[in-house]
Amino acid sequence: MRAALTLILVLSLSACGQSKFNDLQEFVKNSGANLRGKVKPLPEVRPYEPFIYDDFDLIDPFNPKKLELSRTGKGGGLQPDPNRRKEALESFPLEGLQMVGTIRQGDNIYALIKAPDNTLYRVAKGNHMGQNFGKIVEITEQTIKIRELVQDSTGDWSEKTSTLQLVN
C-alpha cells in the first residue's frame, strides 16, 4: 500500500513538471505582434476667453428692479397692492393647485382646493391664489375663474384670466 501511494505521488509530481499551458504561453507571446501602438496626440488646449456683457442699456431679465419700477408708478395703470397681506394659496403656482369640490352654504358657494403639500383649503370669491396676484372672481360647481396680474418686460401690468377645473 505504501509503495502504491509513493508511486502515485511520484507520477503526479512528474506530471507537474511538464508544461500543460504551452498553447496559452504561445498565445500570450504572439498576442502583441499585430498591435499598432500609435495614439494620436491630444488637441491643443486654447485658453478660455470670458464673454463680457456690455449692453447696459438693455433691461436685465433677472433683475428685480423691474418690480420696483412698477411700484413707483412708472409701470402704468394696473398694479398689485404690495402692502396686502399674502394668503396661504399665493405661495403655490396656480398649475400646482387642484379644485376637488365645492360647498354651498345658503347663497354662498365655496371651492375646495388641494395644494401640492396635500393640504385642503376652502376659498370663496375675493380670495387670492397663485403666484401672479390671482384673485378669485367667480366660483361655479365645475370651475373657478381667477383674474391674475402679470408684468411684462417693460414693467407694465396686464390682466389675465385663468380657470381652474374640477378634478374628478
Can you offer a commentary on this structure?
Helices cover 19% and strands 27% of the residues. The chain has a domain at 65-165: SH3 type barrels (Roll). The chain is built from three helices and seven strands; from the N terminus they run H-H-H-E-E-E-E-E-E-E. The chain has helices at 2-17, 22-30, 65-71; strands spanning 98-105, 108-114, 120-123, 128-129, 134-139, 143-151, 157-165. The protein is elongated and about 115 Å long. The strands form two sheets. Strands 4-5-6-7 form a four-stranded antiparallel β-sheet, with no helix packed on it. Strands 1-2-3 form a three-stranded antiparallel β-sheet, with no helix packed on it. The chain is α+β, with helices and mostly antiparallel strands. It starts with a helix and ends with a strand. Mean pLDDT is 82; it is low at 69-75.
Q: Tags for this entry?
A:
single chain, 168 residues, SH3 type barrels, 4-stranded antiparallel sheet, 3-stranded antiparallel sheet
